[in-house]
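Re: the request from the purification team.
They wanted to know what the chain is likely to look like in 3D before they choose a buffer screen. I agreed to run a prediction and write the result into the notebook, where they can find it.
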Amino acid sequence: MNKIKVITIFGTRPEAIKMAPLVKELEKREEIDNKVCVTAQHREMLDQVLDLFKITPDFDLNVMKEKQSLTGITTRVLEGLKDIFEKEKPNLILVHGDTTTTFAGALAAFYNKIEIGHVEAGLRTFNKYFPFPEEMNRKLTGALTDLHFSPTISSKENLLREGVEEKSIFVTGNTVIDAMKFTVEKDYIFENHILNEIDYKNKKVIMVTAHRRENWGDGIKNICMALKNIVEENKDVEVIYLAHLNPLVRNVVLEHLDGLDRVHILPPLDTKEAHNLMNKCYMVMTDSGGLQEEAPHLGKPVILLRDVTERQEAVKAGTVKVVGTKIEDILTGAKKLINCPLEYEKMSKAINPFGDGNASARIVDSILYHYNLKENRPDEYNTL
């Protein structure tokens, strides 16, 4: 047959980080004609990743607007992809994870009767509003998907319970581990000079990110109050809070933490800076999804500032501790790691269940197998 025509679609920085190594792997395979479409749901942060991995999109919908709504993003992506699909007529589109771009991209492909591959498929919290709108974006995308690329056995089992055919599920590991092979450097020098001045050897440096929609308001405030308590009671602790540019987050962080000794409030870092900060820090406190996968790969315990997680494998493996956003619960979880070497060692040395750096190759091999260009079905990734 002719080359398999694939369009890879993503729009935010987290998607781009995880899709970049897959794009590079697709480019290597002579059986595949891959084109990249970005929606630019997030513009500046997306462009940082494209530059880092030297990816030039074939199509750029540039949908981002000031004070954009979920409805607006969805409709602009649907409209933008309609013309591209009608012209290009791909065999397969690839989307990632749980963003609005992901769901809208899958829906647009369904409307055009194009097969859909969902990277990082099958994660679930089983609560449609946590995280919002990500849980339903992921689940609705799964309902439209033809090829499910699940990172772990657990995510595959979630899909099987929902009635997905087993033959359409491929367990691959998570592509973010592939990406970190490109980004983490042993003797990295930061572009942000503040990060070069911190004593990572003698201080317990905590990297913090917290910006999810469900934590706006009291959640962010409680996180800040807990961090203030931690630095005041532990003189060997230093906090780096990467504060989202959204005023609903940043203004609260500045109100409660600005000017405190040993607390640095910085804007979000680009991917390479963030991965290398993670590599140097003592532990991570976050409400992020992706950091639950990235930090354990580097041996860094994660205190999760959410009530639920779609990455239960990390909790079971012991690399992530879910504490929520109540001040006392945050303090209990964080101080145990700060003050108990055995607890820290147990979490930092737990095996990361999310990948071995070969997820992208497994995904592409699975695509070739699906289109009868590879004889044997790829082996499943398994941490056991």
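For the purification team: The longest helix spans residues 70-88.
Please add any questions underneath this entry.
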